[in-house]
Amino acid sequence: MKRNSRLSLALHTLSHMAGDPSRMRTSADIAEHAGTNPVVVRRVLGRLRKAGLLTSEKGHSGGWRLAQAPEDITLADVYLALDERLVTGGDSDEAPACSVEKALHKRVTGVLEDVEQRLIQRLSETSISEVRGN
Amino acid sequence: MKRNSRLSLALHTLSHMAGDPSRMRTSADIAEHAGTNPVVVRRVLGRLRKAGLLTSEKGHSGGWRLAQAPEDITLADVYLALDERLVTGGDSDEAPACSVEKALHKRVTGVLEDVEQRLIQRLSETSISEVRGN
DNA sequence: AAGGCACGCAACACCGTTTGTTACGTGAGC
DNA sequence: GCTCACGTAACAAACGGTGTTGCGTGCCTT
Ligand code: FES
Ligand code: FES
């Protein structure tokens, strides 16, 4: 949709994890596989952890692992975990007055919210285990 | 949704025009009213003209005017006029192989297309004349 | 107990997109 | 001919996303 890549990375990684949930992966592994940087991986995976989709462990045999059964994690969960909502989340917008602008804004955000609802609904129909993880 | 402001500007301007379609407005007027720059106005309004929503005239009493009846211009028309599709338009994406990545991408873009469809459908339910132009 | 490993986090450089600004050309009136 | 307003290009500034480095903190191995 918008300025992605985070979603792609998250989904890609989770898909692989779904293929072998017990295996522990380091951010370095993931980064190399995804062609990016370990820190970047930790950044986005961190959000997923905060949402309870992943767990991370430090130390020698540390790394990342799914916190739930692959079948229970839907694409919507992932989308929501990295909260990049369509509706540009509660922004302290411009002119409060101006009847027209207000009406306009209301209309548009109304539609947007409806659409986002739809998006989430559609995403929730697929789990990460339904996308073959090699 | 994404990196907007163009949509806002377009909608705001058209709403005002809908309130008094015969009146001719200059980009300078519009820019001042919208708190931006004339060139910026021309840029975005130019797209609307290309889409047949507006006409522009040079010379002394030149400016911008609606090319259609206000009731015939829907929000969807405006949205489509400045083509900033949600689905990040036909990008020549990454790795062609990788069954997983491909399946994933397909799923996501599928949903996205459906959602964008919905967005357009919802936007088309409202015309710019339905938003009080003072 | 010491060393190493992997995450957590902050700071910063880099880059692409968007927005704003200046400048100049063109056509339509006056 | 002069002015007005658009059309367009070029460039600067602002913004957000991504990549990188550095350092701190647990945890496991030895
Ligand atoms: S200023 Fe209020 S709508 Fe234009
Ligand atoms: S490389 Fe991870 S899906 Fe192909």
Structure explained in plain terms:
Two copies of one chain form a homodimer. Chain A is mostly helical and 134 residues long. Chain A has a single domain, classed as Orthogonal Bundle (Arc Repressor Mutant, subunit A). Chain A has five helices and two strands, in the order H-H-H-E-E-H-H. Chain A has a two-stranded antiparallel sheet with strand order 1-2. In chain A, helix 2 (27-34) packs across helix 3 and helix 4 (75-81) crosses helix 5 (99-123). The longest helix of chain A has 25 residues, at 99-123. One FE2/S2 (inorganic) cluster sits between chains A (12, 16, 33) and B (98, 100-101).
Reconstruct the topology from this structure:
Two copies of one chain form a homodimer.
Chain A: H1 6-19, H2 27-34, H3 38-50, E1 54-57, E2 63-66, H4 75-81, H5 99-123
Antiparallel strand pairs in A: 1-2
Helix pairs in contact in A: 2-3, 4-5
The first copy, chain A, binds a DNA duplex (30 and 30 nucleotides) through helix 3.
